[in-house]
Write a structure and sequence with these properties.
The protein is built from 22 helices and 22 strands. It is an alpha/beta fold. The relative contact order is 0.11.
Length: 669
């Protein structure tokens, strides 16, 4: 079986199932085997009900004690029953699965797997997996892969498809010589694929993840090395000498810049006035004021008679940047336009025409900027905001709209400088550490689940004072395999807990783009009081009126991502607060890690502590997302592999050449 073959060549995958895979970006066999499990489930020994632990996954073997009850609660159909063993009783609950009423009968014994909560002084297991004892025994001591899914595609179907594709990855030839693998204790390539998808034990899984993280980092750094070689040769065709004009622009701003902002602007002007094309990263903590740095760069280009482009990941963020820059440039004779996917066709045509004629100085937008119809007259500066959301190819496509324009990338992802130098080896780096004056430090607290009702009262009080609130949950829908707080169920719970006049809405990544934009805009317009969301809001909303961020199951996220989420508040003059709900308060390691957030608002310090506390060996649980979007690799968890990849690239780049087309899926940063 060839990696380039369509997945429809796999036995059992027809047009309908293929369409489901396509929604996940899986079209070929290569796409399939490079889509790795997002988690692994370990099926251990059942425990007595009295010994179950709150807030974590438990396995219980118990007998059905009551009849199965089905009742409607608002939009949900609630299925409940009580089970018992010799040590106690447990309430079992499912949502919207009324067919289960005929599945269970009094006196039957089952094994239930799920997270235990306490409600009304009773232990409750919601949305558990269930097995007959004999079937469960067959699964004991195995690590079961859990894949990313979409509607119409089950985990079982995904597993079966990967198993049917084993011949594709077993036929791969390792690009690392065997003696080098042995020297650095790296698993063989085909063995790593086998143990990523179907690990026999935790040790093999760790070694497979270690090898895969290395592969992803090495390929990434290999591509950057080639890119840097090309960039070094680029002659600056767009020299920008506007130091005096920019100084006057900065002087007229209604606020004073921080030292970090001033230094970043000086670095940019020095680059754009040099003999070579600029390739610079401005790395600033959340709320550090990177936008005004971008504005100064765009202003300098416009004053020189050139055009500039700013690409951001969401339409709402694009509109916010457009409004802010339009305000800054309104009296300076600089024409700013805004182009996104939802821009009306007639308006798009006007922008295309005026842009090609050079009438537009600054164009702000989303991925719409890299469409074929977008043509600049003299593009000299390309800026990508929240750089990690865009792939290298997307960045290059935008740069390709001009004659080797200057490139400025901006990111609020806090990365320790030692790792940033490796990750952004094709870029020079400017760091903004200080926050603008007048920003009040966010007040933080890490609390257990028993604090939730108190938190609800605090949220209600903040809304009564005309402030707005974010609540973050880690999942969209109730999962068949994991029971974490999720946005759809949680929104109903919150509506019930808060006063009836509080407007609560849901936002998650599975919504259509226009629906997400509409909800974010309504939140920005203060028509929504409490926004219950997944991490989709990590980037994309700047709402100075939001004063509270509450994160459920905060133990499921990396510290750096939690800090990113926290950055959605504290953007106005009001005092802001962040409440981290710890679902594993009995875990000392988790508590220690989250306390870092409670004690500090410094993203770079937090990133360093995250690296130190988690270390390169914490491979299990949901992989932190939102930083560098690799399939497996995480710059904090796998920092040792990142450094090894850099060392081996310097030493063996002529001997170790990855087959980027076939062996490793395209990596986005």
């Amino acid at each position: 079986m060839d990696l380039r073959e369509q997945i429809t060549t796999i036995k059992g995958i027809g047009e309908k199932t293929s369409a489901c895979f396509s929604k996940l970006g899986i079209h070929t066999v290569g796409d399939l085997i490079n889509t790795f499990p997002r988690d692994y489930i370990f099926y251990g020994e059942p425990v007595d009900i009295k010994d179950t632990r709150i807030g974590v996954r438990n396995v219980v073997e118990a007998t059905v004690f009551s009849y199965v009850d089905v009742k409607r609660v608002r939009s949900l159909k609630l299925v409940t029953m009580t089970v018992k063993d010799s040590t106690g009783s447990l309430k079992i609950t499912w949502f919207n699965q009324p067919y289960l009423k005929n599945m269970f009968h009094k006196g039957e014994t089952y094994v239930f797997v799920g997270e235990i909560k306490v409600k009304n002084n009773m232990r409750v297991m919601e949305q558990p997996e269930y097995y007959k004892p004999a079937d469960y025994e067959n699964m004991r001591q195995e690590l079961q892969p859990v894949y990313p899914l979409t509607k119409g595609l089950s985990n079982k179907t995904f597993q079966k498809a990967v198993r049917s594709s084993r011949s594709a990855y077993l036929a791969l030839k390792d690009y690392i010589p065997s003696e080098i693998r042995r020297e650095h204790n790296l698993m063989e390539l085909t063995e790593s694929y086998e143990n990523i998808h179907f690990p026999m034990n935790e040790e093999l899984l760790k070694n497979a993840i270690r090898r895969t993280a290395f592969d992803e980092f090495y390929k990434f750094l290999y591509e950057l090395k080639i890119l840097k070689k090309e960039n070094v040769k680029l002659v600056n065709n767009h020299k920008v000498i506007q130091g005096k004009a920019v100084a006057e622009f900065v002087e007229k701003l209604p606020y004073r810049l921080t030292k970090g902002q001033q230094q970043a602007i000086e670095d940019i002007l020095s680059d754009m006035g040099s003999d070579n094309v600029m390739n610079r990263l401005v790395q600033g903590d959340v709320g550090s004021g990177k936008t005004v740095v971008a504005a100064a760069a765009l202003y300098a280009c416009a004053k020189e008679g050139f055009q500039g482009a700013l690409m951001v990941p969401t339409e709402v963020l694009a509109k916010q940047h457009f409004d802010e820059l339009s305000g800054l440039f309104s009296d300076l004779g600089i024409c700013v336009e805004y182009l996104v996917g939802s821009t009306p066709i007639k308006e798009k045509r006007r922008i295309y025409e005026e842009l090609s004629e050079g009438k537009i100085d600054v164009l702000i937008g989303t991925h719409a900027l890299i469409e074929d119809k977008v043509e600049f007259k003299n593009l000299a500066l390309v800026i990508t905001d929240e750089q990690h959301r865009f792939g290298v190819n997307q960045r290059n496509r935008l740069a390709g709209k001009g004659d080797y324009p200057h490139v400025l990338v901006m990111s609020a992802t806090p990365i320790p400088r030692t790792l940033a130098i490796i990750m952004y080896s094709d870029l020079d780096i400017s760091v903004i550490k200080e926050l603008p004056k007048g920003r009040k430090p966010i007040k933080n607290c890490v609390v257990g689940t028993n604090y939730r009702n108190t938190a609800y009262k605090f949220i209600a009080a903040q809304v009564a004072e005309k402030s707005q609130v974010y609540v973050i949950c880690p999942m969209v829908d109730v999962s068949d395999t994991m029971d974490l707080t999720n946005v759809t169920e949680y929104t109903d719970t919150l509506k019930e807990a808060l006063p009836p006049d509080v407007v609560v809405e849901t936002l998650h990544g599975k919504m259509k783009a226009d629906e997400k934009n509409e909800i974010m805009q309504r939140f920005l317009d203060r028509k929504i009081d409490v926004l219950v969301s997944t991490t989709v809001i990590e980037v994309g909303i700047n709402n100075p009126n939001a004063t509270v961020m509450m994160v459920e199951n905060s133990e499921r996220f990396g510290l750096a991502q939690l800090h990113q989420l926290r950055g959605r508040v504290g953007r106005g003059e009001k005092q802001s607060y962040c409440i981290f709900i710890n679902g594993k308060e009995d875990d000392d390691d988790v508590t220690t890690r989250l306390k870092v957030l409670e004690d500090s608002n410094d993203g770079f310090f937090i990133a360093g502590e995250d690296l130190r506390l988690r270390g390169p060996g914490d491979f299990f649980g949901i992989r932190q997302s939102g930083d560098m979007q690799f399939n497996i690799a995480d710059i904090y968890n796998h920092a040792d592999m990142l450094k090894l990849a850099q060392e081996m690239l310097e030493k063996y780049s002529d001997r170790i050449v990855p087959d980027v087309a076939d062996k490793i899926k395209q990596i986005n940063i």
